[in-house]
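Today's session is about reading a structure prediction critically. Students often jump straight to the picture, but the first step is always the sequence itself: look for stretches that repeat, for charged clusters, for runs of hydrophobic residues. Only then move on to the predicted structure, which in these notes is written as discrete structure tokens rather than atom positions. Here is the chain we will use throughout the hour.
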Amino acid sequence: MLKIGLLGYGKMGKAIEQLAENQGIEIVWRISRDNLHERNTDYLRAADVVIEFSRPEAAFENVMACLEAGVPVISGTTGWMDDLPAAQSYCEKTAAPSFGLPISVLVSTCFLRSIATWQPL
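Below is the predicted structure for this chain, in token form.
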């Protein structure tokens, strides 16, 4: 079963949780600003993929924490695209421990789609 972590647990995080649960997909953890201190490598790695919907000022740090933990991340947060090239560069140079392939970040904000690694997981 797919295990999803939710990084950002506002309206979108809760909506994603409901959709996932309706499809039998497990949400293994939820991180909001109230429990951000729990965002560590071991915690992040409990998820197969992270869906990140936070705030522009937190998104890049959240995405990089996932990438550094070797966990693919999908970000729907707007307003941090100036930092996307740094995340893309990291992805292209780094292999995910469990896959041996470059790790991925998919960004889809306001109908903009960018994949920071060109190899599928």
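Discussion point for the tutorial: The first strand starts at residue 3 and ends at 7.
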